[in-house]
Write a structure and sequence with these properties.
Number of strands: 29
Helix content: under 10%
Oligomer: single chain
Distance between the termini: 44 Å
Structural class: mainly beta
Number of helices: 4
Strand content: 35-45%
Length: about 400
């Protein structure tokens, strides 16, 4: 059993606190963005790039100034009324300063999930749009649950990529338990300089594919996930935290210690710690979340900006375990949110402790938190879907 599963506890009103987190605030770093879903920081320089769902990536020069870095708006599928398609993720190659490579994830105009690599031009001041190399390419059956996050693990330097279960409701095709497709999973691959990729020999399905099933997708590292939005790594040790969006009743945070090679998180047999498909289901062999909370808010209300009382949320936004130096009281706490309510929490995964920290960061107004981001100094940023990016900073009286 991994070191954190034993600390699982149910979200409830009676919450203990490790220490009062009141020395924090947020400051606006970027604004006037169009549906921002992520922010990425360039290795070495710590320059910030804002990723818009509508297809554009901007270099943020300062609060009042941004410059276009890449425009994929003609390549992607995005609706006037926001759904879950579009430009969904970006990550710089760990060796970006020398090779100029970066990776993006998007849904194209044919409704295919695409993971591509681009590179900077030879003079390193603009993107070579013709340099696109598609690593992953497959069709989506619906317009939701696309996942689309990608990141390099700081310890093994492999690229991890999340995909949802394909959409609709309840995983009607049983995709998340099917190892013959990429749906409902996190992939783990080793990108090569020529734009191809290798599958690490220690991926959990490699041996199974060689011996039993040639059609199995050995890129899969973990499965049984509904729609991870987002996952992140502990920069100290490579442990992974995943915010997995629930169906009707439970939102969950999943976790694996570095070195534990994937596994099955149970969807659509389980939703959180509970049977989903049928009462009295067989729960053996599934990895339980380290944390769950009720999915009790109204999603359409969240899109209309209506603030509900006495609800927790309805769509988890995974964040980061804080490893920065600026805010001592946040160190070792997992910062995450819910898109529907805009509530932000700090979870101590080792002490059964959670604290809401929305008020000191964003006040009492309703917010839609689409993502968190982390710079090269391990400081954390809040990405607000209506167009702003905030940095979490210490607050001194």
């Amino acid at each position: 059993m991994n070191k954190i599963l034993k600390y699982y506890f149910l979200f409830s009103i009676s919450i203990l606190f490790t220490q009062e987190i009141n020395n924090i605030k947020s400051v606006i770093i970027a604004e006037n963005l169009n549906r921002p879903v992520f922010a990425v920081f360039e290795p070495g320089t710590n320059k910030m790039y804002a990723v818009e769902q509508t297809g554009k990536i901007y270099l943020i020069n300062n609060l009042q100034n941004k410059s276009l870095f890449l425009d994929l708006s003609k390549k992607i599928s995005v609706s006037i009324t926001p759904d879950e398609r579009g430009l969904l993720g970006m990550v710089f190659d760990p060796n970006f300063q020398s090779n100029g490579f970066f990776y993006v994830s998007y849904i194209d105009t044919e409704n295919y999930s695409v993971v591509s690599r681009f590179r900077l031009s030879e003079n390193k001041d603009e993107v070579d749009i013709e340099s696109e190399k598609k690593l992953i390419y497959f069709e989506q059956p619906f317009n939701n649950h696309n996942g689309g996050h990608l990141d390099f693990n700081p310890i093994d330097n492999y690229l991890y990529i999340s995909f949802g279960d394909g959409g609709a409701s309840g995983d009607p095709y049983g995709n998340a338990q099917n190892l013959h497709n990429f749906f409902g999973s996190i992939l783990r691959i080793d990108p090569q300089d020529d734009g191809s990729y290798l599958i690490p020999n220690d991926n959990p399905l490699v041996l199974h594919k060689k011996n039993n099933d040639s059609d199995i997708k050995s890129e899969i590292w973990a499965h049984g996930l509904r729609n991870v939005w987002r996952f992140s790594f502990d920069n100290n040790n490579g442990d992974i935290y995943m915010g997995d969006v629930g169906q009707y009743l439970w939102e969950e945070i999943n976790y694996l210690e570095f070195g534990e090679n994937g596994g099955n998180f149970g969807w659509n047999i389980m939703e959180g710690n509970h049977c989903y498909s049928e009462p009295g289901c067989d729960k053996e062999g599934f990895i339980n979340p380290i944390f769950e909370y009720p999915s009790d808010a109204n999603y359409p209300f969240s899109l209309m900006g209506i603030k509900e009382k006495n609800v927790s949320g309805c769509s988890v936004t995974g964040g980061y375990l804080y490893r920065g130096d600026q805010i001592k009281s946040l160190y070792g706490l997992y910062i995450f949110s819910d898109f529907c309510t805009g509530k932000i929490w700090a979870l101590d995964p080792l002490k059964n402790i959670i604290q809401e920290i929305t008020e000191p960061l964003l006040g009492s107004e309703k917010h839609m938190i689409s993502s968190f981001s982390q710079d090269i100094n391990n400081e954390i940023y809040i990405v607000e879907f209506s167009g702003k990016i905030y940095k979490i900073e210490p607050h001194y009286e």
